[in-house]
Amino acid sequence: MTLRKNILAGWAAHLVTVMIGFFLMPYILGTVGESQYGAWVFINAVAGYSGMIYGGFGATICRYVSDLSARKEWTRLNQFVSSIQSVYFVTAAIALLVTGCFAWAAGSLNKWDSLSLLEIRLSILIVGGTIALGMIGSVYGGVLIGMQRLDIKRSIEVGIGITRLVLVLLCLQQQYGLVTLALIFFVVTLAEHLISAVIAYRLIPTLSVAPWNTRKDVLQECFGFSAFNAIALVAEYLIFFTDTVVIGLVLGPIAVVPYQIGLRIAQMIQIPIAQIGEAILPKAGELHAKQGSHELGKIVAKGMGVAFLLSGGFFIGATYFGEMLIQTWIGKHYPSSALVMAILVGAQMVALPMVVTRKALLGTGQVRLPAFIDIAEAVFNLILSLILIQYLGIVGVAIGTLIPIVLTELFVFLPYAMRQLLLDRKELFHQAVVLQTPALIVLLAFCEFISRFELSSGWLNLLAVTGGGGIVLLGIRYLTHIVDRNRLPLTTIQPKTATH
């Protein structure tokens, strides 16, 4: 499966997932109400911290499977996958313990409004069970990614998403909405990992994930690689869940709802672009095994350019038509959600191109310094969010996410990544910024022109604006590509000699 096909498969799967998510969120919000929905988001954010005890082994599986499969070392591959799964059984037990403590402590929070404490506690425990189950079964998804079969993995995710949609529509109208939601997510998670396991065994006939394949020396090597990746994972979870937890603790779960609306749209935009990095990770492992650093550098530069183009296009669209999107989607006016969305999408213009470089570094085994950079950014994010929420509310939390990303990614991480990946400064700037700028400028002019018509909310108008903007963005970028492809490299232009 080629890199380009993997990325396109991920985008196609994400399109279906986005359509499902766009329908589900307002349906769940309208069915269970703001109090229960806010509690559901808050519970998942807090319980999600237990995912930090994955210990960075998820990326370790992808990296070693891609490397060892390229070398045809199948026995060694089985040892790595089995050893990591044995670790996951331990971390799953810890996850259950963590969520059990959270369920016990839930009664001390006085922000549940009129919700039943029993229902809250049951929901927390089921969510914890889902996390534990996901840890144990996630090795098979890692095998699929390591074998560069993201197309299969994304197809499974689409099927699971559709199943979850059907179950929510059939069951959510019943009593105990939070418990019902938790059970649905548990069932579909179980199904997802069972299907992944069956396909992984078919994809690698010699695959054997069993306790007797666990090796002490392999565990030591895994821990050595995963230790710093675990720090990066902790940072990712802190950044991902910090905003929701801070708002829930300071302002109450119901205040999470308007922030979650803006955050959810930003995440829907983020996921397909981040999949460029997910596809590059196993490719980087393969090229590293084959000593292909020059080719990897070219792939990274182009991937960063695509990430910057798409995130920039979404940022421009969100700035002009964010309120129209939220009003159409949710059916209710949330004044602060559009501003939160624009700030978070703006942050992605910096963060998403860096995801490509992070995954490339991870695929080549370079995890030490990026891990410390990530944790510093996460702590900066937490401190700034706690300060700004006191003065600016949920908008302050969004700004507390934006500032650390811009400062840390551009002035600390990027220079380091360029040195490690041997990226030429001028070529990277040309590929990642210069070639994308004309399309973004024309899109900005298009949005400014369309916004003067004061369009009313509605899916027809929204789809027309989105489609028109997409055509403008991609059309101008294609023309730029044609011009750049036909330009003569400076090294081929010979100066004329003077004649006397």
Automatic annotation (TrEMBL):
Top-rank taxon of the source lineage equals Bacteria
* A Gene Ontology term for the protein's cellular component: plasma membrane
Is Membrane there in the keyword field?
yes
Q: Where are the transmembrane segments?
A: 7-29, 41-65, 86-107, 122-146, 246-266, 299-322, 334-357, 395-416, 428-446, 458-479
Where, subcellularly, is it found?
A: Cell membrane
Sorted keywords for this record are: Cell membrane, Membrane, Transmembrane, Transmembrane helix
**Location, primary (coarse class):** membrane
Q: How does it sit in the membrane?
A: Multi-pass membrane protein
State if Cell membrane is listed as a keyword: yes
What protein name is recorded for this chain?
Answer: Putative membrane protein EpsK
Gene label: epsK
